[in-house]
Design brief:
The chain is 14% helix and 32% strand. The radius of gyration is 15 Å and the shape is globular.
Length: 165
Amino acid sequence: MSEAKPYRTNVGITLFNADGLVLIGRRFRDDGPEIIAPGLEWQMPQGGVDSGEEPRTAALRELWEETSVRSAEYLGETDWLTYEFPPYDGPPHRLSKFRGQRQKWFALRFTGHETDIDPLTPRNGQPAEFDAWRWERLSLIPDLVVPFRRDVYRAVAKQFATFVR
């Protein structure tokens, strides 16, 4: 049944600092089929691509909406990657009509100041998704996310390893 549903077009952001570490945020609530599990609340920023929006533009918008970061330079991007949502039998939700996400990931280098990072203030009418953030080694991040995202995170870590300093 879920194979008949489309993938949601989405972007992910791997934001590197000057030391080659990556920004991750701690999700503090489920979002329909996008569940979190105890001990696996960390992830990189990601979000949907609006109709008619270019993926790179969406990545910069999502980074700002979720972290307030605007100071970042482009390093590279992946091809499209997909993951399936876990089974969901909750109340109707905006993501229920999708089988999972089709994502393009962008590597960016943070050029701002850490005081610029603020995941708690809502922007663009979007509620906060993260209640905390930190810098982490890219190679460790796949083990910090929910299992249904791990293959994509491993592919991103492999493709963006060249940007680790």
